[in-house]
Amino acid sequence: MILRLAFRYSFSSIGRHRERSFRLAFSVAVSIAAVIIVISIMEFLQEGRLDRIRAVRSFDTVIPGDHAEDISSMYPGFPVFAYGETDALLSGHAVKLRFIDEDYDGGLIMLAGNQEGLVVSYPVMLSLPESHSASLLLLSKGRSGRMLPSSEDVSISGIYTTEMGREFDELYAFLPIEMMPEGIDVYTALKGKDISSAIEGMDAISWKESESALYSAFMLEKMMMYTVLFLLFIIIAVSMKQTIRIFYRERRSEISELLILGMERSRVRLSFLLSFLIVLAIGIALGYLLSIILLPPAGRYLDSIFHRGAGLSVPYDGFMILSLFLLIAALLFSAAESRKAESTALEEVRGE
Amino acid sequence: MSDVLRLENVWKSFPSPSGGRLVILNGVDLAVKAGEVVSIEGKSGSGKSTLLYIAALLSTPDSGSISILGHDASSLSLKDMLEIRRSGTGFVFQSSLLLSDFTALENAAMPLLIQGWKRKDADERAMEMLSMLGLADRSSHRPDKLSGGERQRVAIARALSSAPPLVFADEPTGSLDEKSAECVEEMLLSAARTAGSALVYVTHNPDFASMADRTLLLSEGRLSDV
Lengths: 352, 226
Fold this sequence. Notes:
The complex is a heterodimer.
Chain A: H1 2-10, H2 17-57, E1 61-64, H3 68-74, E2 80-90, E3 93-100, E4 108-113, E5 119-120, H4 122-127, E6 132-141, E7 147-156, E8 158-161, E9 171-176, E10 187-190, E11 205-206, H5 207-210, H6 212-250, H7 252-260, H8 265-306, H9 316-350
Parallel strand pairs in A: 3-9
Antiparallel strand pairs in A: 1-10, 1-11, 2-3, 2-6, 2-10, 4-5, 4-8, 6-7, 8-9
Helix pairs in contact in A: 1-8, 2-6, 2-8, 2-9, 6-9, 7-9, 8-9
Chain B: E1 3-15, E2 21-33, E3 37-41, H1 48-55, E4 63-68, E5 71-72, H2 78-88, E6 89-92, H3 104-115, H4 119-132, H5 148-160, E7 166-170, H6 178-195, E8 198-203, H7 206-209, E9 214-219, E10 222-225
Parallel strand pairs in B: 3-8, 3-9, 6-7, 7-8
Antiparallel strand pairs in B: 1-2, 1-4, 4-5, 9-10
Helix pairs in contact in B: 3-4, 3-5, 5-6
C-alpha cells in the first residue's frame, strides 16, 4: 500500500511534478557521475604521484646505515636495498645521483636514453647499453661544511624522471653502489610497507615524514577537490529541498485526504518520503551507470597522456558517502516539509 | 435504535477580526440514530460545516461533549480516532477531494486498502459501488478526466465503500450544476440507505434538505427542527 502510493507519487503527472522529478533524477545522475569520474581521475593522479614518491624519492621506510640484511630477514617479501645519493651535474642536468644496489626494483620513466618514455626497472636499467658517457661533477661535503666539487667520467644508461608533475619532478641517474665515493651516507630502504614506528632504535623515518611538505600539499589538493565536490552536492541538495517543498505544498489536500481516510501519519510520511527516495535512487543508479560507461574512455585518454595503464575504477567509499548524504538530506527535508504540510492540511480542508 | 452520534452543548468560536471572539456554535445538541438520514440546513456562514467537522472529529469544540459510535470523543486516543475515521465514518466534501494520481476505482478502493483489505477484494467492492453510482465505465479514469458530478459520485463511492455506520457530507452538491446536483443528491441518499449507513449532510438547498428523514436548521449557533 505504502509502496504503491510512493511509486505513484514519484513520477506523478499532476502539475509539473514528473518534469521536476526527472530533472532532479537527471541532476543527481550527472552529479554522481561527475563526482565518481573526478574522484577516480584525482585518485589515479595522486596515487601515481604518491607511488612515485614511495618508489623513487623517499621509499616507504628509510633507515640510516646499511641494515639491508637485517631488515630483509625481518620483513621477507618486501624489496629491501641499500643506497646513497648526492646532488650532481650530469651533461648539463642537475640530477640526484643515486648509488643503489641491484635489489632495487626501479619503476622510473626514462627521460633521455635509448628506451625513452618507458617505465624501466633497475635490472633493466643495468642491462641497457651504457649510452651516455658523461662528466660527473660531484658536490661533496668538505671540512667546515663547505661543498667541494670533484669531477669523474662515468657511463650511464639514461636520465630518469619521476613524472609527478612539473613542479615536483626531479631527475635521477643511477650507478651501482659499488661505485659510490666515500663520504656519502648509506641508507637502507624498504618498499611497500611503512615500518618506521615498528622498529626502534634505528631512527627509521617513513616517506610521509621525509616528504611531509609534498604529502601535505597533496592532501590539501585532495581536500580542496572534495570541498568543491561537496559544494556541488550542496547545490543539488538545495534543488532537492525546493522540489520537496513544492511537492508537499501541492499535495497538502491529498495529505489531509489520506489522514481523513484514517491513514496513520507515519504511513503518510513514509509514502511521500519513499516517493523521493525512489527518484533519488534512480538518479544515483543512473549516475553510477553513466560513470561505468565514461570511466574506460577517460582511462584510455589518461593512458595516452601518462603512458601508464590508467585503470580508473569507481571510488566506492566516496560514492557511498555522497549517496548516503543525498538520501539523508532527502529524509530530513521530507520530514520537515511533511510536518509543515500535515499541520496545515486539515485546516485547509476545513477552510480555516 | 441506538445513537451513532450524539453532541451535547457544543460550543465553538473563532477569533474575530475586530478583536474578541465570534461565537459560531452556541450550545448545539444533536443526536443521530443508526441508519438515519439527517440534513442540516442553514445560511451561508451559519456554521454548518464547522458543526460537521466537529461531529466528524476533524475539528475540536471549545466545550461540550461528543459521543461517536459509542465512544466518548474526549477520551479517544489518536489511534482510536484513526480507527474510527478508518472504519467507522466516511466523509464527502463539497469540492470532491480525490487523490489525483489514482483512478476512480483506486480512489473508491483506497479506504478499504487503508483498512487492510486485499487489493482484489477492495477493487471488487469499489467496482460494486461505482456501478451502483453509474460509474462502471469511468472506473479507469483519473479525476482530471471526470466531470464535477462524476468526481462527486466517486467521492460518495469512496465514503460508502466500507459501509461505515456513519457518513458525513459537506455541501456535496454545492459546486455542481442543477442537473448534476439532483443526480448526486439522489445517489448519495440511495447509496447511504442501501449501505445502511447513517448520513448527516449540510446544505443550503431546502429541496435537498427535505429529502432527509429529519431536517434541522442551524441558526444563530443553535439547531432546531424544521
